[in-house]
Design brief:
Glyoxalase-like_dom; Glyas_Bleomycin-R_OHBP_Dase; 5-stranded mixed β-sheet; Glyoxalase-like domain-containing protein
């Protein structure tokens, strides 16, 4: 059985324009069931979600159009390309377990590390206040492109409030039969994969396999790293094999059971 520090895949972040977010229900109609999101505590962004049966979710996030352009540029996602996966997050059963991950980084052969937990949150449309802490990757010299390494989202209020898969199971049922995320592949610029390998070894502390919130053992639940243009790709797990187009040009494989 995985130990308490085995990463749990939490969510995938997809940046869209605010206009696209307002019309996202039409884009995913007939493919996915859309769940409401809310506005983030910083007042810069808002989101909508797709909850998957394995407990992982997809987050469509958008910056409000009327915010200060400089505030957007200074945000870690403010300069990323819209209509793409820009980041992804792990979580743990308890925020206290993150110290073991940080200890592994101190012993690892890598310049990368993670910040200490930074408080965050948002308010749901029904008024429920969600609180969490995030830990983002960093290095002494230069910026780590979002998505090259996952960030961590550690709940300070019950995860079931943030991701109501068990409370509202109907939101996890999708017309295309997608059941969860089978694998994640990360692409970094040619020649940098070896630099990131030590960081991934420290994240996992062993084989690069993650858990999912539901505890399901289906799919490979693996992460791979290779050279290429910066990007994050997914393989979904579903009732039958196929493909799904999340956004125009953003197409992913569905691995049949």
């Amino acid at each position: 059985m995985p130990d308490l520090q085995t990463p749990i895949l939490d969510h995938i972040v997809i940046l869209v324009s605010h206009e696209s977010l307002l019309g996202i229900s039409k884009q995913v109609d007939g493919q996915f069931t859309l769940a409401p999101g809310g506005n983030h505590a910083d007042g810069l962004t808002t989101n909508k979600l797709i909850l998957l049966p394995d407990g992982v979710y997809l987050e469509f996030i958008a910056f409000f159009d009327n915010i200060d352009p400089e505030k957007r540029r200074s945000h870690r996602w403010g300069n990323e390309q819209e209509n793409t996966i820009i980041d992804w997050a792990f979580t743990l059963r308890s925020e206290e377990d993150f110290s073991a991950v940080q200890q592994r980084f101190k012993k690892a052969d890598t310049e990368a590390s993670y910040t200490d937990p930074i408080a965050g949150g948002r308010t749901k449309p029904d008024g429920t206040v969600l609180k969490w802490a995030i830990c983002v990757p960093q290095q002494p010299h230069g910026k780590i492109v979002p998505g090259s390494l996952p960030f961590w989202c550690l709940d300070r209020t019950p995860r079931a409030n943030r991701v109501p898969c068990e409370v509202e199971p109907q939101l996890t049922q999708h017309p295309n039969g997608v059941q969860g995320i089978s694998s994640v592949s990360v692409h970094v610029p040619e020649g940098e994969a070896s630099r990131f390998k030590g960081a991934y070894d420290a994240i996992f502390g062993g084989p690069w396999n993650y858990q999912v919130p539901s505890g399901s053992a289906a799919g490979t639940r693996s992460v791979s790293l290779s050279g290429g243009e910066n990007s994050v790709r997914l393989v979904f797990r579903g009732l039958k094999q196929g493909k799904v187009e999340l956004l125009p040009g953003l197409v992913f494989e569905i691995e049949g059971q």
